[in-house]
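W.,

You were right to be curious about this one. When I first looked at the sequence I had no strong expectations either way, so I just let the prediction run and decided to look at it fresh. Below is the sequence, 144 residues in total, followed by the output.
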Amino acid sequence: MRPTTLALWRVSDPGNVGTLLRAADAFGAAVAISEGCADPLGSKALRASAGAIFRVPLLDFDDAPGQRVALVAHGAPPLHELELTGPTTFVLGAERAGLPSDLVAGCDLTATIVTTGEAESLNVAVAGAIALYERSRSLLVGAS
């Protein structure tokens, strides 16, 4: 089992799914896919994954292990302030709709990626990559 998983809730753009697979590969994470997600084996997702699809474990959305952290655009504690221990799954929402409130409520924690610019929100693939980096950084700091 990998210590970190990205759980994708109805991420419909195959380029985003492929990019998230590529980021998961870079940081040693798994990816869990919900119904309504783009096919990770579709041509656009395959291209965006740059072969990562063949190295990253794929799980069903409901099988993602560990504590679940819902990444939301606003109104939650900053991701970098959370103390994440043990297996962790970052739950990422659909490009336009984000995560439904009942899904957020079912997660163990919520977090926001703090930005300093004017953008209202981040692209889902960018948010997932930042979450994986932050998790990797915190695991390295904890190991030293």
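Here's what jumped out at me. Helices lie at 14-27, 43-49, 101-105, 124-143. And, maybe more interesting for your project: The chain has one domain: 4-143.

Coffee later to discuss?

I.
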